[in-house]
Each structure stands twice: as C-alpha cells, then as structure tokens.
C-alpha cells in the first residue's frame, strides 16, 4: 500500500520520526487520523525486524535468463532489502545456436563472465551437430538440452542487458583484478582523472579575494554578528617595548574596548584610576576600571580580554543595544557614569588629600576632569561635543565646527565657563553623503572659547568679518580681471600676440601698426599677470586670517588651554560581519627624537608614524573614517582669571546694532587693483598704475599685530568707555574707519554665524547630545 505523501510530510514537520510517519501515512490518509494513531495506539509501535534471508545451497541455473527467487522484502522504505545474489560465472554449460543473430555478442558476454586465469585453458570448437558448448574450464560438444531449447530470443537479450560489460579487447592478461568502478589507483595527484575532482582547482589570490568579498556582500549584518571564540582569540605574546596593552574583545562590542583603549591613552585619566587608593566601599565598576588601567603599568602580555568587564559595565550603565559608529548610546551613558564614579571616589578620600601632588587638580574639582559647562546653562553637564559632517562644503577641523556651534545667531555671546581636562569630539557622518578628509590636528588651543576671553574674542571675530568682506571684493576683482563674458582675457591676448608674431604685411604702415599693437599687448599681458599675482597673494593672506590666524598670539595668557590629541577611534565603513573598528593612540615621547610614538591597535599594537595617521583615508569613500577624537589638556589646569570688562553703556549697544550685525564699513576702490582704465582713442586697455596710488597696508597676521600699536602710532586720547583699543595702522586699508586716529571702537555684538540660526536647545544638544540623561552626584 502506498503512503500518503501529504500525511507523511505533515508528521515529519511535527517532529515524528521517519519510520513511524511512513507507517501512519500508509495506514491513514488524513492528518488527523494519523496524528491520533501516532500519539495513541501507535505510540509503542516499532519497525519490524528485518527477515533473515533463506538462500538455498543448490547451484544456480546456468541459463542466462534464469533469475533467482529473492526472499520477501519488508515494507519499511528506510530499511534496504537483501542484496541480489551474485551468479557465479561458469556454473553450468550454456548452449549457443549458430543460427542466432547475436552470436558474437553472446560470445563476448560469455567470455566476460569467465575467469581471466582460465582464458588459456580452453578453446573454441565447432560441434558436429552445428552447435558449440562453452564452459569455464574446457570446450566440448554436446547436444542441446530441453531447458536450452525453451529459451526465447527476448529472454536471452534481457540476460545480456543485465550482465556486466565485456572486457576491453586491449587489456593484457595480468594478475590485477579488473575494477569497473571505484577509486583509481593511478598516480593522479591533482585529481584530474576523477569524475568528481578530489581537490580544489588552483586559483589565483585575486580570484579568492573576489569570491570572499562576494560572499561577504551577500551576507546580512545579523548572519553571524559575533565570530566564534575559538577562531578569533589570538595567542598572547610578550608586550612590545613602549607598546600599550591591548584591550581585546571577542563577544562584547568592539567599540567599548576601543573606548577603554582611549581612556588608557589619556595620561590624566590613566593616572587618576591608577592613583586612587583602593577602598572597600568603592563600587565594583570603579575597582574593575582601576585594575584594568593598572595593566598599562604592570602588564607583561600584549593583550587583556575585557569581554566580562565590558558586559558588566554595559549592564551597570544600562547600555543594551550599541549601535554602529559613532555609538552615541555608549557615549551618553558611559562618560557621565564614569565621571560620577570618579567624583564619588574623590569625595570619600577628600580628608586624606594632598592637593600638591600630581592629582591635585582632580581632587580640587573632580567633575572638571570629564565635564564641560557652558555659560548659558551652567547647570547642564556636557561630557562630549558632536560635529555633524554633511557634505563636501562642511568644515573639516575642530575650530570651524566648534565656532559654528557656539557662536550662532541665537547665542552670539556663548562661551565655555568650565572646560574639561579631557574633551571627547564625536564626528557624526551622514550615510551616503561624500565628505572631505578630516584634518587631524595634534594640538589645539581653546582659550578663545572661554568666558574670561569673550571680549577679546569678540574683537577678533569682528576683524574676521571685515576681512571676509574684503576677501569677497578681492575675489571679484580677480575674476573680472581674468574673464569677460565667459572668455579668458589673458588667453585671448596671448592668442592675438601669437597671431601678430606669425603673420606679416607688405604694407609698411600696416606692418608698423602691427608691431606697435603687439608691443602694447605684451605690456598689457605683463601688467595683468602682475596684478593677478598680487590679487592672489592678497586673497591667500586674507583667507589665512579668516581661517583663524588672528587668534594666534604669543601672549601666554591666551595659550593656557592647549590640548593634545591622544586617541582616534576609526571605522572602515563596511557593514559586513568582521572586525572593522581600530584605534590610533598616542604613546610616550621619544627622548632621542622628541617625537611621540603612535600605535595602531586592532587585536595587536602596531607602531606607526604620525604621517601615516594623518594621511589615512580608510573609510572616506565607504561612510567611515574617524568617528571619535580624544583630546586632553597639556600640563596642569590653569587658574581661572577674572573676566574681562564688557561694554555697559546703551550708546555702545546702539552702535553695535547700527553696524549691521557687527560688520565694519569697507570702502571700495582703495587698492591698486582698481587702477584699470580704458584708452578710448586707441581702443586698448591701459593697465598702468595711476599716479600716487593708495598703498594697501599689510594685513595683520596675528592678534599681537592687531592689538599692539606699531612704532610711530599714537593711541586715541579719548576712547569710548568699554571699547577696545585696536591698532588700525597695521590693518588693511579696507579695515580702517573714520574712528579716532590710531584706534577704533568695536561693537559688542558679534557677527551672525553664516551657518544660519539655531535654537539654544539645539546648540546644547550639538555640543554634547544626551547630556540631560546624566545625573550629577549627590
């Protein structure tokens, strides 16, 4: 009886074993009935035992068409039946008639069934009765038997088809057995003779890499997000001289380990964790971090597995689903909680503190180690700042991005009231949008953003605004000098000069005119080239000033907050499973060269140069790149001076409003580039300098040149109260105004940010998003 396939498949899907499913499908043709039998009467059913074959010992019939009788087969499809017995060749004589059409085929069949060792013991002979009797050991003639007479042609053909193929006619007699199937014993190392190749075909490395990349591209990120532990744990070796101890994870998120690696690269944070005395009342998280940081001083092996530590910190800090870079969730929860742990530890040890030791700054104000506060919202802690990277025109360094966040139209006087010793800069990149390479800076000075420098910063920003206006005018002049209605003027003049030089005229008057015209054009081209070069120089100088050169000063009070780049967290941009995160950390300064070492960390520490770090473009074209920069203060924390006086009179405030957003009037037509006139009689451009042109004075290159009076300059005897004395003699002509000689009064309201208006809440979130989630220690 055939089994119902639908019932059998349904039972297999339910987990019923195959023999019982088949038996139920044979007995019943509905799923319900089969299920009732399986879990009812048939629960104790077992497959029947295989019957013992009862083969007789009599010789098999010698006829080719004879088929032995097989024992009955079982109904179980999963138990194979008894093997078909092999008929020994030569068990009896076979009579072949000479009148058969397939005599040669039957002869070859019988020869193939003979033992190869007996080929030489017999021969073929013709019988007197017209027939031949073929045996296994000899050839003899005999009369046809009654059994042979009953064989039909159809039966003999069936026997031929069921027999083995004849031997090869070219095969020589040997003692080796003839193998029709099975593995070959020939020397085939490459497996080329096998029907199925035994070894992989040799391929080049490029093809293997392509196939591997193709397979990874077809996998989803959730296919195997965490690799197996056995395949990825390296063998620990001795630590390299000067190399940091690597914090390795196999199952935990790699970004958490990279963040811990950045912690260890910051001297202030590393020294605080290592310098805190152990206390039985300290939280477990603090003890674990202290033990981890101590590995940087006493560790002998190259790495430490931090899977358990990261899992414990994530659980304690309530981090459940770390996202891809820049991992705001871990930053938002880890940094405030780590700061709370350190503040709590400093509070319990305050009675035993020596404020003159290396950790004096930390014990005086422990929160300032990681937390920054703004003047507009001093009660809101900010553990990190975030810069959005959204296009090719977006700024690619710290200062322009930080200025666009702090100095907006809604918060023009925003400043930093308390600057953390460690600044975390998160770079958030929009997927699918191309960006320029980020300019990595080893040192940055952040004094300009502090509250006590707000007035001098406002002055420099006003000068930057004025220089921006002049820069725009110079660019327009350079464009008008080089092109007219889409045509390049210098190229057109050179083409005309070449034409006049290569052609001649037989008319003497015309030839003389052509010579004068050529001379005039050459002088014009030279003058235009010189003026274009001067304009380009002026543009370059003013672009440098606009980019922040005015803030550069030798005044030590304006260079107290210098920060050094300590760590860079990097993502290669790929989303396929694998290890795509690595970290650059700054090492100790080499005493022989005075240059700090850098290490690239990904499962191991590899020494690299700063040039390699600064030129790394990994991830730039795959939505990757650096996503977290860690800066820390150089030296001790300076004492905060008293804030600079601010303008208080209403007259000055009204003046700042009347100055159109803080811009300074820029006179037009005061430079030598404007001295371009047209000679209407000759129809030629006369670019000669005008008599006594007004000389453009060099632009100030630093804040010192801007504020300090030059030799021979006199300060204004009657400056407006609250204004700032500025040496206008060193400013460009376009920056000089009608204010008193030698000084100028600047408005108290800075310029509106070109980035557009933003709300104060948005500004606070851009400075450090998610800071409101953190709780200050009680």
> Main sheet, how many strands, which sense, barrel?
8 strands, mixed
Average pLDDT: 71
Which outline best applies?
flat
Quote the beta fraction. 5-15%
**Percent helix:** 25-40%
Q: How many DSSP E strands? A: 19
Low-confidence stretches: 119-149, 221-227, 649-697, 706-765, 768-778
Task: Report the end-to-end length measured between terminal Cα atoms.
Answer: 82 Å
Question: What can you see in these coordinates?
Answer:
The protein has 778 residues and is of the alpha+beta class. The protein has a domain at 5-41. Helices cover 33% and strands 11% of the residues. The chain is built from 22 helices and 19 strands. The strands form six sheets. Strands 7, 9, 10, 13, 14, 15, 16 and 17 form an eight-stranded mixed sheet that branches. The protein has a three-stranded antiparallel sheet with strand order 1-2-3, covered by helices on one side. Strands 4-5 form a two-stranded parallel ribbon. Mean pLDDT is 71; it is low at 119-149, 221-227, 649-697, 706-765 and 768-778. Residues 135-144 have a biased composition (Polar residues). This is USP domain-containing protein. Residues 151-160 have a biased composition (Basic and acidic residues).
Summarize the structure.
The protein is an alpha+beta fold and 778 residues long. Strands 7, 9, 10, 13, 14, 15, 16 and 17 form an 8-stranded mixed sheet that branches. Residues 151-160 have a biased composition (Basic and acidic residues).
Keywords:
eight-stranded mixed beta sheet, 22 helices, disordered C terminus, Ucp6/RUP1, Papain-like_cys_pep_sf, three-stranded antiparallel beta sheet, single chain, alpha+beta, USP domain-containing protein, UIM_dom
